[in-house]
Amino acid sequence: MTHQPVFPFISIVGQEEMKLALLLNAVNPKTGGVLLRGEKGTAKSTLVRALSALLDVPFVNLPLNATEDRLAGSIDLEMTMTIGERSVRKGLLADAHGGFLYVDEVNLLDDHITDILLDCSASGVVHLQREGVSEVYNSEFVLAGSMNPEEGELRPQFLDRFGLSVQVTASASAMERVLLMESRERFDADPQSFIAAAQERQTELKNRIQAARTLSVCVDDSIINYIAETVLNANAAGHRADIVIAEAAKAHAALNGRDKVLCEDVDAVAEFALAHRRRQMEAQNPETQNAPKENKPQQDKDNQETQDSSQRTENNSHESEGSSQQQSEGAGMETVFSVGELFGIKKIETAKDRKNRKGSGRRSRTRTDAKHGRYVRATENRGSGDIAIDATLRTAAANQFMRTPPAGFAIAIEHSDIREKQRERRIGNFILFIVDSSGSMGARARMAAAKGAVVSLLLDTYQKRDKVAMIAFRGEGSEILLQPTSSVELAERKLRELPTGGKTPLSAAIEDGRRLTGRYLRHNPDSRPVVIIMTDGRANVPYADSANPRKESQELAANWAREQKDVKFIVIDTEKKGLADFALSGELASALGAKLLEIKDLKADSLLNAVRGSFSDE
Amino acid sequence: MNRIVYPFPAIVGQDDLKLALILNVINPSISGVLIRGEKGTAKSTAVRAIANILPEIETVDGCPFNLPQYGAVLCQTCKKAECASATTMKKRVPVMELPVGATEDRVVGSLNLESALKGGKRQFEHGLLAGANRGILYVDEVNLLEDHIVDVLLDSAAMGVNTVEREGISFSHPAKFTLVGTMNPEEGELRPQLLDRFGLCVTVDGIRDVEKRVEVIERRLDFEADPEAFADKWKNECAALTDKIISAFELLKTVEADRDAMMRIAVLCMESEVDGHRADIIMLKTAKTLAAWNSRTSVLDEDISAAARLVLPHRMRRQPLQQVGRAK
């Protein structure tokens, strides 16, 4: 092991909230861990690591690329080979027992690793049941995580596992920033003497934590009532907040040398426990926060009409009011609408099949050849070197009667015994957006809403690491705005600049889309494209000589779906349900075998039902 | 490797790129440089060339981590007994290149399980991060690398340690290296989180000046025709540059930045609305190194402005969908 000098906890400038939340956990592990949320470069991991130097408990760092067998434990190869008995090698969860487990960028952790963490942190016990070994051992630890919400949110049930959460921001005081630079430079120049200089105050803090840990603190009924009221007023989900606040308040009192919890202790810690449990999570959603200034996100979802009209007023300068639809279609006038409301997106994924795929990302589950992902079962040797020890040993065991183990070994293994792991992981998809920008989309702020929805979807594709392409159609034809790329930025810019106006050449867009996904599938035969069509379905320009453009578009759509069975379609109607036109896009959707949705169906509503609202076809 | 490397001073133009590399080798805690730009702009030539003019490092012969001497805690786990009696040798600063298709195993190292199963011996195969210790890790097309590999890279770069906890291996070793990444922004951006980890960022363009373009071609042809003679011709300039880097390295220890200078940096960072404090810290380091490079012991305003130009552009992009360097 290499010992890196650790920046002393007490020398970290500012970030008092983060420090307090960590100290509360150090004093009272029942506080239930802490999640540090915030922008990059705000000393999140520096602080957690600094804490480790203050404590005499185990401190385990879980790297993002850790595998299940190292986390939970697995068969001990050397012992099994030499003694010939199944023997277990415990994992990092065992090492963390009684101490801290720290995950940097916890929101990027693979799902199957998260599941193990969730299970274990709920029960305090690891049920190891894999690779032919089974064992149960204790693992109670304080879970500390840090994350940058730009990169995606945590699953709600995982979020709730963290007792406390702290929103971290950079210091807004220039002087504080200067002090910070100074101390960093002094540390980097000579870490040893920097640490030595902080030693006295470090020891002081250490003793204070130690004293607080041994203090038994009592909570009066009146305080418990006060906590309950606080939680009720905050409209927090579940009962965990109450318990967490009580434990954190005890720690706070103990840190201040008191054996009795006061209201001020509750006040000091309540926000840590409530911030991530409030029901209106949208307010904290990074996407909504980052919404462009010109179109503030509308909080009131029921009030669609007000929203529509307010946006219409905003766009009034471009739009010539109510009858604009007819006018702009006739005259071919073009306007550029701004991007409407942004929101979090429900889960969209494709179903699992039997193909192995390469690539990374976090959208759809697939089998993979890479040595990364969840071990689902063992297969024959394909020469990848990703060996399944359990299966190999079992195969070898069956053949032992005709072999002699080498000296010092209990079992002889030959090349023919080797078995490999079949793994499963999530990867990104290829997503084609087909956006209707005809004149009819200009009415009732449809285009602003549609752009808002597509940008929201783009943010989602960014977090899931998809490839995207974009086709827009208006006037006489359709246009490929963006060839398949990973550059979500480019897609967003193209969309922002997209003008609206003219007729609706849906058929042309369908043909362009079919060719584009066809080409993509030829180059990437294993990929599963998702096509998202955003339209009101009022096709009125024929592709070939056709008397009925609407019927033609449906026939072409049906042909597309028939020809490319691996493509998944989603049609998003920009009209509201109840209006007669909804039927038009309904016809398109059924021709494609697609799900028909409204924009509001895309929204991941809240903390509470985000899990249920999935479009996965599993 | 006895192939002759194109001499660093002979590279025409690309002053930002050259400066950023020089600053990083003088002060590795600047933590790397990201080179954005089109293909064929001398990016990889410059990286190889700079390694070639750096003073040689002393290492234990055959040490996979380029350690300067035997006896670290690591040496017990590494179990290469012959190191104890091995002599130290001088060698060029290593440049490890990470290809786009690299697997995680190749990067962090892996255990050869089949040999472990057949012979019961744990044989750790070291990855690129081991070889890059005390050297330069060059990542071409860093924006096309798989996310989890970039995560590993940046983790190691930030901590100076590579920690492996996978597939039966639990191992950590020093991985202190200067990270040089290149990317063509048209093929997709890096995540802001990753952008921020690169200390400096330069944008390189093809040279627009005809005369200079001719010079590029002429020099290249000269070099191809007779590398030895070409290298010889530039020998003195290379040596002068090496000396200048060494004296800047020594001088850096005495460079001071006063409160006013730091205040300027803090205000600059706050005005550009960059996330967090990393920009402040890196800008101070860069300004100090610039002062040392210019043979001064105090940081001047011009150092800060020059540093800002290298430190801020890639950090002004605050959210995932915003473009790099777009003015607010």
Please report which band the strand proportion of chain A falls in: under 5%, 5-15%, 15-25%, 25-35%, 35-45% or over 45%: 15-25%
The total strand number of chain A stands at: 21
Instruction: State the low-pLDDT regions of chain A, or none.
Output: 281-331, 606-618
Number of helices of chain A: 21
User: What is the C-level CATH assignment of the largest domain in chain A?
Assistant: Alpha Beta
Largest sheet of chain B: 5 strands, parallel
Major β-sheet annotation of chain A: 6 strands, mixed
Please describe what this structure looks like.
The complex is a heterodimer of chains A (618) and B (328). Chain A has 618 residues and is α/β, with parallel strands linked by helices. Chain A folds into 4 domains: 9-214, P-loop containing nucleotide triphosphate hydrolases (Rossmann fold, 3-Layer(aba) Sandwich), CATH 3.40.50; 218-279, Orthogonal Bundle (Helicase, Ruva Protein, domain 3); 329-350 and 429-602, von Willebrand factor, type A domain (Rossmann fold), CATH 3.40.50; 366-426, no CATH class. In chain A, 40% of the residues lie in helices and 17% in strands. Chain A has 21 helices and 21 strands. Chain A has a 6-stranded mixed sheet with strand order 17-16-15-19-20-21, with helices on both faces. In chain A, strands 2-5-8-1-9 form a 5-stranded parallel sheet. Chain A has a 4-stranded mixed sheet with strand order 11-12-14-13. In chain A, α20 (549-563) links the parallel β19 and β20 (568-573). Chain A is globular and about 85 Å long. Chain A starts with 15 loop residues before the first helix and ends in a 20-residue tail after the last strand. Residues 281-331 and 606-618 of chain A have low confidence and may be disordered. Chain B has 328 residues and is an alpha/beta fold. Chain B folds into 2 domains: 32-204, P-loop containing nucleotide triphosphate hydrolases (Rossmann fold, 3-Layer(aba) Sandwich), CATH 3.40.50; 252-315, Helicase, Ruva Protein, domain 3, CATH 1.10.8. Chain B is built from 14 helices and 11 strands. Chain B has helices at 15-26, 43-53, 73-78, 104-108, 113-119, 128-131, 147-159, 192-195, 210-225, 227-233, 235-252, 259-271, 278-293, 301-311, and strands at residues 33-37, 57-60, 88-91, 95-98, 110-111, 124-125, 135-139, 161-166, 169-174, 177-183, 200-204. In chain B, the strands form 4 sheets. In chain B, strands 4-7-10-1-11 form a 5-stranded parallel sheet. In chain B, α12 packs across α13 and α13 (278-293) packs across α14. The longest helix of chain B has 18 residues, at 235-252. In chain B, 46% of the residues are buried. At the A-B interface, α3, α4, α8, α16 and α17 of A face α4, α5, α7, β8 and β9 of B.
